Prior knowledge:
With 170 residues, the chain is α/β, with parallel strands linked by helices.
Amino acid sequence: MENEIVNRVAQSGLITIDLGEWYPAGERKIIDIKDQLFQGLILREKDFREFVKTHNWEQYKDAYVAVHCSADAIIPDWAWMLLSVSLAPFARKIVFGNLELLETVLYSEILSALDMEQYKAARVVVKGCGDKPVPLTAYVELTRRLQPVVKSLMYGEPCSTVPVYKQPKQ
């Protein structure tokens, strides 16, 4: 059996984490209230309340929703609260900000619930180049949480990694 192919990666004991596998399934939507501003500058309460009352909130069912205003205007806090109240029965998650912040919040929640003890003294590879849009903040947060427990941390694929951290010898 001198020509037997041996999968050394499988035998290496490396644990691979693919953040893309944790990507929460569901549609992402954004509500930009710039079109609700009077003359593009001012949010008038009466008009905004009418928008909130007549808007089709059903379209956000089971979606992850970011609410923001792309115009340079001062929006009173109660406006965001009204949007939240209207979205709450439909949306899975509501955040104030853009879609990038929405992804950051979703991954932050996932990573904060992760039991790091399962990676104690392990050699971990964080997979890159996936097909899901993983925010860079997720890589930073995962690294921050893994560093105190892992033996080593690498980035890439098990066959070609970039060393990120190695626990100092005691």
